[in-house]
Amino acid sequence: xxxxxxxxxxxxxxxxxxxxxxxxxxxxxxxxxxxxxxxxxxxxxxxxxxxxxxxxxxxxxxxxxxxxxxxxxxxxxxxxxxxxxxxxxxxxxxxxxxxxxxxxxxxxxxxxxxxxxxxxxxxxxxxxxxxxxxxxxxxxxxxxxxxxxxxxxxxxxxxxxxxxxxxxxxxxxxxxxxxxxxxxxxxxxxxxxxxxxxxxxxxxxxxxxxxxxxxxxxxxxxxxxxxxxxxxxxxxxxxxxxxxxxxxxxxxxxxxxxxxxxxxxxx
Amino acid sequence: xxxxxxxxxxxxxxxxxxxxxxxxxxxxxxxxxxxxxxxxxxxxxxxxxxxxxxxxxxxxxxxxxxxxxxxxxxxxxxxxxxxxxxxxxxxxxxxxxxxxxxxxxxxxxxxxxxxxxxxxxxxxxxxxxxxxxxxxxxxxxxxxxxxxxxxxxxxxxxxxxxxxxxxxxxxxxxxxxxxxxxxxxxxxxxxxxxxxxxxxxxxxxxxxxxxxxxxxxxxxxxxxxxxxxxxxxxxxxxxxxxxxxxxxxxxxxxxxxxxxxxxxxxxxxxxxxxxxxxxxxxxxxxxxxxxxxxxxxxxxxxxxxxxxxxxxxxxxxxxxxxxxxxxxxxxxxxxxxxxxxxxxxxxxxxxxxxxxxxxxxxxxxxxxxxxxxxxxxxxxxxxxxxxxxxxxxxxxxxxxxxxxxxxxxxxxxxxxxxxxxxxx
Lengths: 267, 424
Ligand SMILES: Nc1ncnc2c1ncn2[C@@H]1O[C@H](COP(=O)(O)OP(=O)(O)O)[C@@H](O)[C@H]1O
Ligand SMILES: [Mg+2]
Fold this sequence. Notes:
The complex is a heterodimer of chains A (267) and B (424). Chain A is α/β, with parallel strands linked by helices. Chain A has 10 helices and 11 strands. Chain A has a 7-stranded mixed sheet with strand order 1-11-10-4-9-8-7, with helices on both faces. Chain A has a 4-stranded antiparallel sheet with strand order 3-2-5-6, with helices on one face. In chain A, a hairpin with a 2-residue loop joins strand 5 (75-83) and strand 6 (86-87). Chain B folds into 3 domains: 2-51; 56-192, no CATH class; 203-420, MetI-like (MetI-like fold, Orthogonal Bundle), CATH 1.10.3720. Chain B has a 3-stranded antiparallel sheet with strand order 2-1-3. The interface between A and B is medium-sized, with 26 and 21 residues. Bound molecules: adenosine-5'-diphosphate (ADP) and magnesium ion. Residues 58-59, 188 of chain A line the site of magnesium ion.
């Protein structure tokens, strides 16, 4: 299979009130191009799911949105990504405040080898969000509450975060991200290392978080995409083939590649 | 081909495979046993020779501190107390006690007691001048020949040939009177080097080693850690850093004597640092230890999972914050392990220190990093070259002390590494 020449994304890749809008984004790892001229909007307070076969560039695209790709030496990004009308790839943009504004949850839960409290308090501390100990305590409590973890850990805030179960660790990572008060949360297959019960909890959580945050989630599971997202973008070999409301993608896909994927012919 | 014959073939090949596995296991066990045997022989040899260095023979004597003979009294000032003729007093005492006949017998008698004995007497008097005029019981250090004879050779045939008939008679008298005995050799740990084996100790060399290692540590640890962090986290990956990296690895393999030559040329001849001091020794050993610390430091940084870095960066931590808040604390046990191993190597290093003059005969215990001094391995080297049997014994004794330090340091490194492993 090769990439499609002059492909134009089918469906509705753009929206009226975008929080993030990517225009003509291409990504290269050295000589190799991983993302091809993507135009895609992410609306405010929506959950957008990015699906597609492995290696199609979902993670790569997601990591463009908070410039995590900057940490990879050979990675080069062209095009523009606007966050509230400001191009985050502008030369004057500092990635430090950007990453506070666009938080990220990773595939494998990666709490710091520190206490639960310190995990959540780390972001607010480095960004100077709390003026006092009481303030910080409050931020930690609120973040853990929002991540649905407070009840389970409130009696052992000072035991190590790495001692929690996988699902709890991932919710701790979400709490840690929420603690710096981001506007957008990027999630890269956040449930792929978790069991079904922990997964259900996280999915529930994503639904609640939508009220306050804009969320882009990469997922392997089409059921998950269907459960949590409003719009779904189908990636194929670095191109966005189709973007539509989630219902539509899973019931009446417009592009044959999308249909082939969701009916399980490859992936 | 039927499956029957396949089974048979497999069965036959199993026999061969088992035999070769058994053979391989035997080879492995033989190698391990050979290694263990070498270790046992080495340790056995060193301990059998060296343990007696920790015991010293003494002669108990009742000596009258004759104020008239010494020309001092309880109110004399310190310099008079110090300069009084204690040696003469001792000689008088033993002349009266043993009644030697003629000059040569007298000389034989005096040679049984160490020259250090008069210093012992002096020390007693300095500590308490009221002893003047009284009789004291004191354990005097004997000469190294008597020490060796009493500690190990007495029962062996022909061992007494070093002594004259009169000397043997006197020694036998002392033994009969139960006045010769061995006790813990504190001299060995509190004295510096000496030409008299029974007075020679490792305190000077140990202090020199300590000061040298302190200089080495305070130079090589910060520089090594900083270099490791820079190379691993901040340096751009290009041709230049690649060359730097290759050369650091090469430096780790350079024979240590080369660093001695380099130190001689640069630190001593160019910058005029005093030779034979812990300062210049530490500088040279720093050159040697740095590559080890940098290489192990980089390995420790590499071992920190990238997910931790991503987590910090994803929260908006800057590169510096990521490194200093997360990577460095996790890499620190590994870095310390590497540092301890580097310091242990430096501890045992002799060749480069010979080049910068640390082989000098130094009696005084160094007080600071620019005092002339020697170090334990060089002291061992110096003593091993001396013909006296008492020095052979002390050579092994010093080796035991050195091995003790090495074992302590390596154990610390292993314990640290264990802690590191438990972290994930
Ligand atoms: N760090 C990297 N260096 C080089 N190539 C990479 C790197 N990360 C990803 N790629 C390549 O980019 C393509 C997209 O990868 P990725 O975004 O991880 O896919 P997905 O998340 O959809 O499975 C793949 O072909 C992969 O080999
Ligand atoms: Mg991925």
